[in-house]
Specification:
The chain has about 190 residues and is α+β, with helices and mostly antiparallel strands. The chain is about 45% helix and about 25% strand. The longest helix is centred in the C-terminal third of the chain and has 26 residues. Keywords: Membrane, Transmembrane, Transmembrane helix.
């Protein structure tokens, strides 16, 4: 029965066990750890919430009946017996193992803590990544709404840097102007 529950959870991303709670599967996207230079694979994380549910949904019972190859009433009875045994295990032993899903541990009267199995990490280990810098490699860049290559942008920026030297020409003209004015006053003040 426990393997069937795992299959249903993986296929439907939700499994409700009456009197215990609801298991859901959440997708965590891939992550890049810059500090350790690793790429972490996307994960499917199983979460548990304490929701008071009296019975599972009809779709679950139909799935259970098909998988166990029994009629629906027998599947409902077997599942209710399983849920009762699970609650009994939690009450007497304080914990219950659900293969592929994780372990439930009794915390207080009707509250449980859940420790999920990390199955994905075995199949999708983290990958070491290094930054690759390619000198003089052309790639496209989005500039505003226009796409330009990196070579085009370097050319545009180098032209702008040449145009930003206007102040050098202004200083040269200013020095020449001051020199001409000084020359004018020196030559004309002697003649007066």
């Amino acid at each position: 029965m426990r393997n069937v529950l795992y299959n249903y959870l993986i296929l439907n991303n939700r499994l409700a066990i009456p009197g215990v709670g609801v298991f859901t599967v959440e997708q965590v996207p891939a992550r890049l750890d810059f500090v350790n230079k690793t790429l972490l694979a996307p994960l499917s994380v199983i979460r548990f919430s304490l929701e008071n549910i009296n019975s599972a949904d009809r779709q679950f019972y139909q799935f259970l009946a098909r998988t166990l190859r029994v009629d629906e009433t027998t599947a409902i009875r077997r599942f209710n017996d399983f849920a009762f045994d699970l609650k009994n295990d939690l009450a007497t032993m304080g914990e219950a193992e659900l293969p592929g899903i994780g372990k439930l541990i009794k915390a207080f009267s009707n509250t449980y803590t859940f420790h999920a199995e990390n199955v994905d990490e075995e199949f999708f280990p983290e990958i070491s990544v290094e930054r690759v810098i390619r000198e003089k490699a052309s790639h496209t860049i989005l500039v505003g709404e226009a796409e330009k290559t990196s070579d085009e942008m370097l050319e545009i920026l180098s032209d702008r840097s040449a145009n930003n030297r206007w102040w050098i020409y202004a200083i040269i003209l200013g020095v020449l102007g001051i020199g001409l004015i000084t020359y004018y006053y020196l030559t004309h003040s002697v003649n007066v």
